Amino acid sequence: MRSRQANILSRLRGGDRRCIGNVGEVVAAVRKNPDLFKDLVAGLFEEDPVLRMRAADAMEKISVENPASLQPFKTELIRLARQTQQQELRWHAAQMIPRLKLTPKEIATVTDIFFDYLKDKSKIVVTFAMQALSDLALMGGAAPSRVVKAIEKLARTGSPAIQSRGKKLLPGLKKLAQKE
Questions:
Q1: What span, in angstroms and rounded, lies between the C-alpha atoms of 172 and 169?
Q2: pTM, whole model, 2 decimals?
Q3: Residues 6 or more apart from 63 whose CB is under 8 A from it?
Q4: CB neighbours of residue 23 within 10 Å
Q5: How far apart are CA 168 and CA 174, in angstroms?
Q6: Which residues contact 160 (CB under 8 A, 6 or more apart)?
Q7: CA-closest candidate to residue 159, choices 113, 111, 120, 115
Q8: What's the distance, Cα to Cα, between the start and end of the chain in Å?
């Protein structure tokens, strides 16, 4: 197994964080052999930040079509989201975690994590955290009024991309908050 894992992860090595390298090739390989997905999860915890970023990117792309692929690794994903400072891992965690089936306690935990992400220096992390909080609120998790308040502020003060995302998220969230 170690050689299989090393093989799939070796395809994600090299270059820098400005390019995705062979992520498309790895996604195709994992779609053909779903057992390789756990090797991508292992890649999230490697020392190489390029490898971690690309493993997260591949997982996110796969989980769009197959969110159930994430479920066995829920604990690892939440731990990663809580611990990582790497912006690419943060934004991919914010994309993936709302696709999980979460307990009320887990929803509270990830809600706190994503509220913390709203203070990240990366505008991409902030934008995906806003989306994640909105998704959690719409699923009956995060308190809609708390999410509305945070997103309203960002929609006034954030970058153009953050403002745009905020304006798209607020109408549905405000309707939900009125029902609280």
A1: 6
A2: 0.90
A3: 69, 70, 96, 99
A4: 20
A5: 11
A6: none
A7: 120
A8: 50
Tens digit of each residue's pLDDT (9 = 90 or more) over 88-114: 999 999 999 999 999 999 999 999 999
Q: What are the start-end ranges of the H helices in the chain?
A: 2-10, 23-32, 37-43, 49-65, 74-83, 87-96, 104-117, 123-138, 144-157, 160-178
Question: How open is the CA angle 146-147-151, to the nearest 5 degrees?
Answer: 120
- DSSP letter at 36 equals G
Contact present, 30 and 40 (Cβ < 8 Å): yes
Phi (first) and psi of residue 44, to 5 degrees: -65, -20
CA distances from 68 to 38, 73, 99 (A): 13, 10, 8
**CA–CA separation, 110 and 141 (whole Å):** 10
Interval 134-173: pLDDT, tens: 999 988 877 888 999 999 999 999 999 999 999 999 998 9
CA 146 to chain centre: 20
Tokens of 32: 């053909």
Q: ∠ CA 135-41-64 to the nearest 5 degrees?
A: 40
- SS3 assignment, position 99: helix
Question: Which pair of tokens denotes residue 65?
Answer: 């079509």
Sign, Cα dihedral of 71, 117, 48, 17: positive
